[in-house]
């Protein structure tokens, strides 16, 4: 039957190394990615699979670095749960699903390396623990970078340094703002005092002008009268 031919081919492609000096046979099933690793950019989607929006976009540099890191955590020795999952994915492309898929993959896997179910599941637990431990380490480093925690003797991260600089500049700006507000208040007071002083000066000048004008007018009137009367009296003598 075709399905068993495909399974046999998948198992051979998975386990059998090409002989030295001979090219490896072309795989009859699409290559599967390392367990937990990202699919290669540009790889065609499996037939019949629904298109995932954004799936064709290549990962960013940071995303690829993280994917490579996770793939490194899940890379085993070829006899562990990670290798078994690769076998499951390889056989799944032949049309197997459900219990038959996992049991057939295990039978082929165990036939090559003598794996047992308890050892295989224990290996899966070790990978899960490795991911959990790494996750805690990454979170701890993230908290340090964000300034939420600090390791004894560790240098401050760039984010912590920038946050401190931001706080310092904000305090300086607040101080300068208070100084500007104080200077503005002083300026308003000075302008008000100047306006009052100018008004008093103008009032004083107006008062002087009035007094000077009145005195001059009176002096001129008396001078005119005196000149008139005195000159007239002198002439009469």
From TrEMBL:
List every stretch annotated Disordered.
Answer: 17-59
Q: Coiled coil: which residue ranges?
A: 159-211
Q: Keyword set for this entry? A: Coiled coil
What superkingdom heads the lineage?
A: Bacteria
**Ranges of compositional bias, category Low complexity:** 31-59
- Protein name in UniProt: Uncharacterized protein
Organism, by scientific name, is Hymenobacter ruricola
């Amino acid at each position: 039957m075709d399905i068993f031919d495909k399974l046999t081919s998948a198992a051979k492609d998975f386990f059998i190394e090409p002989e030295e000096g001979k090219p490896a046979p072309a795989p009859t099933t699409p290559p599967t990615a390392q367990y937990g690793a990202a699919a290669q950019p540009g790889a065609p989607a499996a037939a019949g699979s629904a298109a995932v929006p954004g799936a064709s976009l290549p990962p960013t540099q940071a995303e690829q670095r993280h994917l490579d890191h996770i793939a490194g955590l899940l890379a085993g020795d070829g006899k562990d749960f990670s290798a078994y999952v690769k076998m499951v994915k390889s056989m799944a492309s032949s049309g197997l699903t459900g219990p038959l898929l996992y049991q057939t993959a295990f039978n082929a896997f165990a036939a090559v390396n003598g794996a047992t179910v308890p050892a295989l599941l224990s290996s899966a637990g070790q990978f899960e623990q490795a991911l959990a431990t790494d996750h805690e380490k990454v979170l701890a480093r993230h908290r340090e970078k964000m300034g939420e925690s600090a390791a004894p003797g560790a240098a401050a991260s760039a984010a912590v340094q920038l946050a401190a600089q931001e706080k310092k500049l904000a305090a300086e700006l607040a101080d300068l703002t208070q100084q500007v507000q104080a200077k503005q208040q002083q300026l308003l007071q000075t302008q008000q005092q100047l306006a009052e002083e100018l008004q008093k000066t103008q009032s004083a000048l107006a008062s002087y002008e009035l007094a000077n004008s009145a005195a001059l007018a009176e002096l001129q009137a008396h001078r005119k009268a005196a000149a008139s009367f005195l000159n007239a009296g002198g002439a009469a003598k």
